[in-house]
Amino acid sequence: MDGKPTIARIWRGRTRRDIADAYQDYLHEAGIKPLMEKALGVQNFREDRATESEFVTISYWESVEAMARFTGGDPRKIHHLPRDAEFLVELPESVQVLTILTSHGRTR
Questions:
Q1: How does the average pLDDT of the chain come out, rounded?
Q2: How many other CB atoms sit within 10 Å of the CB of residue 11?
Q3: Which residues make beta-bridge pairs with 30?
Q4: Kindly report the CA angle at 70 between 68 and 73, in degrees rounded to 5?
Q5: Cα Rg for the chain, rounded, in angstroms?
Q6: Collapsing DSSP states into helix, strand and coil, what is residue 30?
Q7: Residues 6+ positions from 9 with CB-CB distance below 8 Å
Q8: pLDDT tens-digit map of 17-33
Q9: What digits encode the pLDDT tens for the residues 72-102?
Q10: Which residues, including other chains, have CB under 8 Å from residue 12's CB and lie 6 or more apart?
Q11: What InterPro entries does the entry give (predicted)?
Q12: Torsion-angle region of residue 15: left (phi > 0), alpha (psi -120 to 50) or beta?
């Protein structure tokens, strides 16, 4: 993948703190690994709070059309993983799709 990222797709989900480690492992296997094969780049974040943990995944794409080829449909529509309902406090209703205006520095 030699293209330049012009689009960032941001997904957020929250889980109970006591099952956050299990969800992190599941999310990596079922969600992150497939993204790593298709997206130009992927970042996954976790914030632990007193009773819950929030996960944020940002994937980088050449275009909205490239995202659509990966999702097989509308890339702005949420695509839940098979076990998300088991882990997440609530199922996210949307993702955020942003145009990248400026990018500077190293992120690794």
A1: 92
A2: 20
A3: none
A4: 40
A5: 14
A6: helix
A7: 58, 59, 60, 61, 67, 75, 95, 96, 97, 98
A8: 999 999 999 999 999 99
A9: 888 888 889 999 999 999 999 989 999 999 9
A10: 54, 55, 56, 92
A11: Dimeric_a/b-barrel
A12: beta
How far apart, in whole angstroms, are the C-alpha atoms of residue 84 and residue 23?
9
**What is the residue type of 26?**
Y
Alpha-carbon distance 98 to 6, whole Å? 9
Question: Which residue would you say has higher pLDDT here, 63 or 104?
Answer: 63
Q: What ranges do the domains of the chain cover?
A: 7-99
Its CATH architecture, for the domain 7-99, is 2-Layer Sandwich (3.30)
Amino acid identity, position 91: L
Cβ proximity of 70 and 39 under 8 Å:
yes
> Per the structure block, which two tokens stand in for 63?
């275009």
